Amino acid sequence: MPVFVPAPAVLPPGQRIYAIGDVHGRDDLLAALHADIASDLAARPVAGATLVHLGDYVDRGPDSKAVLARIAGPPPAPGLSVVNLSGNHEDMMLAALAVDPAAAEHWLINGGSATLACWGIGPDVPAAAWAARIPAATQAMLAKLAVTHRAGGYLFVHAGVRPGVPLHRQDPQDMRWIRHPFLTSDADFGVVVVHGHTPRPAPEVRPNRIGIDTGAVAGGRLTCVVLEADRMAFLSVG
């Protein structure tokens, strides 16, 4: 059973959220964490359970294709709702597949070659041919990913929010890409922001945010925060 501690925000009674940080092609770790979530939900049923993936499914790791298939497939447990958010690496991938030479180079520098290799696309294949070799359904799924999810006192985004900007006026680009000044801000955002994007050796919990990118692709662990009522716990694999 997860070990719970007080959380910086509250979910309504009967709700539980499992939120998973940056996967980056580590389908092995995602499968293991999904199994842990299913076991927890079986042991501790709840009326409304939601699994939120915080983005960055692709790049750097060995099997981005399998990760995308997994998050698009059946939920890991009966009755579990799934929300898939967009990260900056999905943003880069879509820009590169739109045949923008600068975007293609930027994606490759940031791990895109590992994703292309999942579809048998080697370095000799020109960027103009990439989109034709990746299923249209996969590209459509990436384009439809949500940017945010709101529940109780929490806002789930990939990277963060810009301090001083009302939530309804936040730029989606910031929500996928921002680091500073978000990470160093002590501002009250009106919600506690649950995010990934910036890897740390362990989950980072502050009064205004919870960061759960623990560097799964770089020898770290894949982390899930479990939120319910006024408490939280962490599951991790790796």
Protein model, in words:
- This protein is an alpha/beta fold and 238 residues long.
- The protein has one domain: Purple Acid Phosphatase, chain A, domain 2 (4-Layer Sandwich), CATH 3.60.21.10.
- It is 29% helix and 21% strand.
- It has eight helices and eleven strands.
- The strands form two sheets. The protein has a six-stranded mixed β-sheet with strand order 1-11-10-2-3-4.
- It is globular, with a radius of gyration of 17 Å.
- The relative contact order is 0.21.
- The model has no long low-confidence stretch (mean pLDDT 97).
Sheet-strand content, in percent, reads 15-25%
Global morphology = globular
Q: How would you write the strand order of the largest sheet? A: 1-11-10-2-3-4
Q: What is the overall pLDDT average?
A: 97
Look at the structure and name the CATH superfamily. Answer: Metallo-dependent phosphatases
Name the assembly state.
Answer: single chain
Helix content: 25-40%
Query: Helix/strand/pairing class, anyone?
Result: alpha/beta
Task: Using the CA coordinates, give the radius of gyration.
Answer: 17 Å
CATH class: Alpha Beta
